Amino acid sequence: MKAHSYVSVSFVVVLLINTSLFPQTLDDLSYFPLNVGNQWIYEHSDHSMTDTVVVADTQRVDNKLYYAVKENYDRYLWFRKDNEKYYIVDTLAFKLDPSNIKEYLLYDFGAQTGQSWNTPLTSILLDCEYSGTVFLNSKKDTAVTPYGTFDSCYAFLREVQCVDAGRVKEWFAQGIGRVAYHDESISGIRDYLLKWVNIVMGTNTGDDSFPIREFSLSQNYPNPFNPFTTIEFSVPKEGIVSIKIYNSLGEEIFTVFDGYKNAGKYRINFNSSAFSSGVYLYKLQAGGVLLTKKMIVLK
User: Which residues form the domain of 284?
Assistant: First the structure.
């Protein structure tokens, strides 16, 4: 990735009570939300292992935006979104020469049920599990996971064409992304189900009437609230934005966002459905500036 010189900005939510936390903001209602900081954790059906997937970075080439998706073992896959179509990039070609990108259609959420297409990936740096023929089997499947039950899922079937040949079926839910996948190969059968998801997207409000000269943090509204509230904050210059969650003991639970934001005024729609009633703090920190507000969940 290119080196950047930015002001470091962190947006921190601090929990004042101990609770299990699964916050979400669903500004992006696509079936495969690709925003830096989005994270999915899948659990094997026999509870023996988990698989973590994170949207880790972006890179713009020839006015096209590519997303780096980090999987277990630090493997990165690169995707590009074009409306309802998602292309996967030949990783080797991308690393050697980003100006000569080879990309292939992987998911098409605008396709008709039963439609198919080929994904002829050959990169030695990308598992051949993404090569072969892709079928859109259904737009109304149901997936039952530890995180919840999802109806009206898009179900894709991939017939893998490589040494470890097999079939992969994936289910995608609107606003959430992939909620389950089933893998059959000569190595065995694996089922992974969504255990936890964090979809966070701050959207620029588009209010450019006045130049932003300082960092600001507005009171969330409504407040008290259950379960949705909106938080607005302003960033006067582009910088690294990270959102971290802490429990009542001050222990960091996880990072919900870690990426860049351009200068602008942003709005985050926050879902507290997994929170207990109580008082919380949310903080905007930038260099020597620390802004703090209280929010109240009332159920």
Answer: 7-21+200-297
